[in-house]
Amino acid sequence: MQLSVLERNFINRYQGNFPLQPQPFAAIADQLGCSEQTIIDSVKQLKDRRLLTRFGPLYNAARLGGGLTLAAIAVPEQRYEIVTELVNTYPEVAHNYRREHTLNMWFVLATETPQEIDRILQSIEHTIKLKVYNFPKQHEFYIGLWLDLPDDGSVSTIPLQVNSVANKDSKESTFHLDDTDKKLIHVTQSGLEITASPYQSIARSIGIDQDEVIKRLSSMLASGIIRRIGAVPNHYQLGLKANGMTVWDVDDDKIIELGNLIGQLDFVSHCYQRPRNLPQWPYNLFAMVHGHNKDEVNDKVKQIEALLGANCRTHETLFSSAILKKTGFRLAA
Helices 210-223 and 179-188 sit at what angle, rounded to 10 degrees? Predict the structure, then answer.
């Protein structure tokens, strides 16, 4: 995919760290050596060309007090289309992927309270008449897909390039949402308006002033409720067309050490401990790996295998073959 120098520089720098100030695009224009209107037009074009899947705050459902889990279903091929349609009707289903495995449908469920997770999973089971396997996060080792787009036209993943205290102390900090915060989340969860004064647009829509919008977003960013604010590149469109969810069976008493080791790899975008579901599912360590093709992903999987060594009994790679739904967490109005 052809990108201009300006587009490439914008994506490289602003997958997070989007300025929290009255005219953020003017600040970016100064950094990138162009006019404010030029960078605004460029970002709009990136979205129109679907090179960005969204632009704005990325909210952390768990830090908002909500429930979050990963679930899977073994769907008979003759029913796949109708089951997809039924599962995707649930607004709580944020992401849904087809994967190459007996468990061939994997979706992320995000709810406003943890108690709702079981209710929604039971409802889905009742609706589709198939067993739903629940794999809630037990430990988060790393999360963050940040793309690097060098001048040679290649694309790779690198560790997060975000300036935020949230990464250090979000687990320790507390933050209580009031009604205004909830309104702010509701109007920004699908993204920011790409205008010279996006925070002013938010302020008008919820009846507060711009400085208050910026202050509240800053507080949510520092507390970890917002993971980062910026561009979310479409890694498929930009060249990383292979997506492998690697799963590993490692000793429970070593999983913290091993999870932290794997989570530090440049090419791992998500790394979690999740429960086994025996006898069908022996795996307790999940690591997401991206590449230009399956061969590249498999080469990276071999690197993980070498690092784990004798600590790993068995593993699999579940390649994604279709995006069935991708909306992200949504807080009700």
Answer: 90
- CB count within 10 Å of CB 302 equals 10
The rounded distance, in Å, linking the Cα atoms of 40 and 38 is: 5
CA 332 to CA 168: how far, in whole Å?
29
Give per-residue pLDDT as tens, 29-62: 999 999 999 999 999 999 999 999 989 999 888 7
Using DSSP bridges, classify how beta strands 67-73 and 105-111 pair: parallel, antiparallel or unpaired: antiparallel
Q: Torsion over CA of 4, 7, 13 and 18, rounded to 10 degrees? A: 160
User: Which pLDDT belongs to residue 164?
Assistant: 45
Q: Say what the pLDDT of residue 1 is.
A: 62
- pLDDT for 166 equals 44
Phi, psi of 130 (to 5 degrees): -135, 150
Residues 6+ apart with CB under 8 A from 293: 241, 242
Domain architecture of the chain: domains with CATH = 5-62+145-233 (1.10.10.2890), 67-136+241-326 (3.30.70.3460)
Residues of the chain with pLDDT under 50: 164-173, 332-333
Compute the distance between CA of residue 59 and CA of residue 221 in angstroms, rounded to an integer.
9
Count of Cβ atoms closer than 10 Å to residue 168 Cβ: 10
Evaluate whether 127 touches 86 at the Cβ level (below 8 Å). Answer: yes
